[in-house]
Amino acid sequence: METVAGTSLIDPFAVAVDVDKGEMPEATNRQVRRASDMRGYYVDERALERLIEQESDPLHYEVFEVPVPNEYGHLMYCISKLQPGVVGEECFMTKGHYHTQVNTGEIYLCLRGEGYMVMKTSDGRFDAQPMERGKMVYVPPYWAHRSVNAGSEPLVSFCVYNAEAGHNYGDIQTEGFLKRVYRRGGEVVIE
Length: 191
Ligand code: F6R
Ligand code: ZN
Prior knowledge:
This protein has one domain (3-7, 17-183): Jelly Rolls. Helices cover 8% and strands 40% of the residues. It has two helices and 15 strands. The strands form five sheets. Strands 1-2-3-12-7-10 form a six-stranded antiparallel β-sheet, with no helix packed on it. A hairpin with a 5-residue loop joins strand 8 (114-120) and strand 9. The mean pLDDT is 97. The structure holds fructose -6-phosphate and zinc ion. Fructose -6-phosphate binds at residues 63, 78, 80, 94-97, 106, 145-147, 159, 161, 167.
């Protein structure tokens, strides 16, 4: 059969997802971010250093993947698992990124936990969508995105996006997301 240049023909496959644990046991890529990888991301830098020291640099979040070709037409997918907790008053969060190909979106289906998908455009629009088990959040093209765990158990999502999208962490780190998610006296505050 003929294929289109730039899009490989591969065999279909299936991968197990442990929905309760929020893991992909057969993952060949497991990206791990520890508290020390989050230096520069939280407001309360001293609280982050205390966490790193007192809890021996604990696990912050993981991404499980069985990769597909990074090519037009393929769909990348993963499990994202973010631990619960606070740094000072700020809820644990992922670094967040724009896609390198900024005109590509993403679907997050929340499988477990509670939190927010925090999003921002380069022209200053802001949005935060609640996440809970069974909620699908659509991240449109052009929106930087970060998950935030506002609950007491891991926040687990299944994500799907264009396989050639790529990740641009630098721009949003420079810009900032405009708002942060805090837990204060049992209340979740976005400001
Ligand atoms: C992929 C995507 C997610 C995140 C994951 C970790 O495009 O949005 O799989 O990569 O939640 O977050 P980051 O990549 O911001 O460290
Ligand atoms: Zn993404």
